[in-house]
Amino acid sequence: MTETTVLDAAHAAMEATPEDDATRLRFFERLADSELFLMLTEEARDENISPELFDVADGRFVLAFDLEERLARFAGRPVPYVALSGRVLSSMLSGQGIGLGLNLETAPSSMLIPAEALAWLAETLRHGPKEVQQKVTEFLPPTGLPDVLLTALDTKLATAAGLASSAFLAGTRTDEGGQGHLLGFIDAVEDAQSALARAVSEALTFSGIEAGALDVGFFAADTPTASALAKVGLRFDLPQPLPPSVERAAPGSDPESPPILK
User: Fold this and answer.
1) Other CB atoms within 10 A of residue 252 CB
2) pLDDT tens by residue, 42-55
3) SS3 125
4) Are residues 94 and 166 in the same domain?
């Protein structure tokens, strides 16, 4: 039986409700988060890659698949490829006038994504969170947040394995009387704090919600603030990673250093 992937499910939801902006946003969020296998003309050399390009009436496209088996089925022969995330691929292709052929002829999510859509995705992903300072005087149970945001946070945090032990979503009251919501990460890896803040910002963006609707904070588990959050907050458990294995980093694995097109 053919595996149904998260991209298949997101694509089906988008196709079923073509007028719904929310399902379209969620598809592009899943595309950004997914690992894709990009077909190459030759084996990658260091950070240099040479994608296979295809010219059709709608423009020029690279081909990528969300399963290695789909790539092999499409090619019908052994071909070189590189694995990289959709966010890295969109950044790499942005401004190149090149679109993406996704899962062509191998899956329900088979589609041509034009260059303009990839440029939009890359630009959307570049919008990061802003740092602000405020004093919170009280944590409260979260209220009034839409289910679509809670689902988006749960899905996004499931991709952040090992970056924190858990997170709590709580209402807040500041010393000036203002109210809001905060997602507090517990025992986050210091170098991962900006990535976690960006992940929350993306969950808001792709849910169609204003970024200012949710603040992000980082706390050690043995602090009073963490205890206060745990008493009233909605808990999210982040997956913990498997024991590390030593392997060479693949081209495109670092979102800050995308591969170089040849």
Assistant:
1) 23
2) 988 877 889 999 99
3) helix
4) no
